[in-house]
Amino acid sequence: MFKKKDYPFEGMSMNFLGDSITATGKYQKHVKRKLKLREVRNYGASGTTLSSNGKDGLLDRYKNMRQADIIFVLGGTNDFGKLVTLEKFEKDARLLINGLKEKYSNKLILFGTLPPRFHLNQVPTNNINKIGLHPRDISDTTKKVCKENNIPVVDIFEESGINESNHEIYLADRIHPTKKGYRIIANLIVSHLYQLHFKNHITTDVYNPSS
Prior knowledge:
Layout: E1 13-18, H1 20-23, H2 28-35, E2 39-44, H3 58-61, E3 70-74, H4 77-81, H5 86-103, E4 108-112, H6 135-148, E5 153-154, H7 156-159, H8 167-170, H9 179-198
Parallel strand pairs: 1-2, 1-3, 3-4, 4-5
Helix pairs in contact: 2-9, 5-6
């Protein structure tokens, strides 16, 4: 039987910034239920990159988000698919993190790595795209930039267990998750948040939900 203290995120609000994987709203509902959040807000937009295109990239849209206690960012799959260079992705990831830290000072910001993807246009080349990148390059760069900026990362790419032999169970079209795939993403987010809390990585020095 859980007691109130077992739900440290109960009553909080959480923003989700991302692409079509986020826009569906299919993993946020599980996160909300499991954490007993008061409100979740969906800032996902289909087909968008993390990198700026001057219009609807995550870097272009984050300023329009409302205040929240927790901010989760999930991007990168369209940067890979739309052949964004790793240099631009890294530069814009840094700009996004800096902007979020300024906008959401004393709030909890965390990123997710892109889920594994096995689109038919990349499978014949061993999952390498036309500019020589593997999805792992996007994942590794996300983790690198976040580590340098003390931003926690939910490593969906490595920890989801989705691979070439089971992707038909977890990916509906080799990119977008099935119901089971979305549950995996939600469970990883919830697990990581609890790990952060119970390891005392969240303190009033860096995170104050009442501020």
